[in-house]
UniProtKB/TrEMBL annotation:
Residues 21-53 have a biased composition (Basic and acidic residues). This is Uncharacterized protein. Residues 1-62 are annotated as: Disordered. It comes from the Eukaryota. It comes from Dorcoceras hygrometricum.
Length: 62
């Protein structure tokens, strides 16, 4: 069972939590157990921030 892939079966609601502030803030202890290597987690955070940035840029401002 590898958590390296784009889809993480252990954390189904990671994307929803990512918009709020990341699952690491909500579950600091669990995140270290489920994601032992910080590299993959950091990559996920970067991907989420990029997606949010893209959404923000595409959204028309009023």
């Amino acid at each position: 069972m590898s958590l390296r892939g784009p889809s993480r079966p252990t954390l189904p609601s990671t994307e929803e939590q990512g918009e709020v502030g990341g699952d690491r803030d909500l579950y600091p202890e669990d995140s270290t157990k489920e994601m032992p290597d910080r590299q993959s987690h950091r990559a996920g955070q970067e991907e989420m921030s990029e997606r949010l940035h893209m959404i923000a840029t595409l959204t028309p401002r009023r």
